[in-house]
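User: Sequence in, structure out. Go.
Assistant: Echoing your sequence, followed by the structure tokens.
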Amino acid sequence: MNDTNETIPRRFSTRQLADMVGAEVVGNESLEITGLESLAGAGAGQLTFVASDKAAREWPASGASAVLVSRGLLPEEPDADGRTLLFVADAETAIIDLLEAFAPSAALPAPGVHPDAAVDRTARLDAGVRIAEHVSIGARCSIGANVVVHAGARIADDVVVGAGTVLHANVVVRDRCRIGRNVVVHPNATIGADGFGYRPAFDAAGVPIGLRKVPQIGIVVIEDEVEIGAGTCVDRAKFGQTVVGRGTKIDNLCQIAHNCRIGRCCVIAGATALAGSVVIGDWCQIGGGVCVADHLTVGAGAKVAGMTGVYKDIPAGATFAGVPGEEAATTLRQLAALRRLPEVLKRLGRGSSPGQR
């Protein structure tokens, strides 16, 4: 099943790690590091990182043998406890390179098509694909080079999957949808389920008798280098396309409704829901648990704080927060006033006569 896993733990000297990120080493350059950990969880042989004043204050109590630290947060001198320090301009960014170095190899299906997979004879599979057991690939699909499809995934008819894409276990891609190159879709996500559309149905006398489904005949287009989290649903359009733009990252358990258009390089955190026909500009950041009402536009570069309820358009570059969502500064002033309200009411009550209350 898996021909790439490495069971041998990865080990690097502090000098090797410093070279990966262009760090200046203060301390033992030959110290062997066997892993990365948080400040609180690190022990002997492990490296942690310090990227804030708060973390710098917590560093002395850490059990780590070494630390990757942003310049200016700790003295660039030998550590009192003999630990090794690696100084960089931005530890928050540099730690990404070290995480990549220590990351275990991904579990992959064997090259080719597993005998328990069901691949329609009209589907086209390019070189280097890895198709796991119990995968189902429908008619006239086009699966690009080096695509990986994990166990239990379903790719319906007429789907296009670009080269280098990874579909994890139990992903469903419905008919006619298009997925770009180097996309990652995590387990149990669904691409191309029907959009949510119903209208009241009436009998000849005008009496309501139920709900009539509005056909959803469009598709979903996932552009290159998108990542979609576990359990997220991206619904097909009523007509036309639901689009997720190049490089956008969507967290777990998000709902992207029919005909939404999400721009390039957006970040959308977990449990966020976009109602139908929402437009999100490029480079937006949307926190967790945000709800955006239908047919609204979030301008390019806007930021939306977690748990915000968005009921009106957000200008490009703005920061919104609260329910209902407003400019963050306005929301903070409203919250501050609300906290003062009991005392204000108390003072008003003291100053009024019984007949005025």
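User: And one key feature?
Assistant: Residues 247 and 265 are 5 Å apart (CA to CA).
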